[in-house]
Amino acid sequence: MIIPVPESELASASTGTIEERCEWTRLDAEGKRERLLLAAAEIFARDGLDAPMSDVADAAGAGVASVYRLYASKQELLATLVTRRMLQVAAAADEAYGRPGSPWSAFTEMLTGLVSVQAADDFVGEAKLAVAEHPDVISSTAQATDALDRLLAAARAEGRLRSDASTLDLRLLFAATRAARHVEPEHWPRMLELMIDALDARRCD
Description:
This protein folds into 2 domains: 7-72, no CATH class; 75-204, Tetracycline Repressor, domain 2 (Orthogonal Bundle). By secondary structure, the chain is mainly alpha-helical. The relative contact order is 0.10. It is built from 12 helices and no strands.
């Protein structure tokens, strides 16, 4: 679905400091995309997915028209952010799978790293639901799932991961730690510790 640019947002293209606009114009296409994605992540994490594209444009130091030239709709922008996150998960799982030593240790270290990053992209879970049917999101989610399945199988073969653990449990873990971060901002790591313990076959015996 293409979200049209409201007239009010087009009017906001003239806002922002001269320095910000000049810096934007000096960026190449890739630099503009990267700056826009960082700005969008910041705005959506702070204000939620209902934040207007004009706020994203202002945060990037760009005009709204420039933003829509790069991403035809908010849906496309969200899909790009979610796809990037899924590919990061896939890369983290592949790296952990290829690490020498204990697969369980690599698995738990990966989880700790991924959950820590959630602090910066707390909106991604909601965004993923909003753009679940986007082809890039479907493809990147499949890559992440395949990579995680390989790592889970290795940790299971080692005898440390409980036999019924699956990627569904990991999604629940991510959701639980996101929720805990809102309830107890200083103590959310306790939730991660409890969830990892629940996946440990040795603790379940």
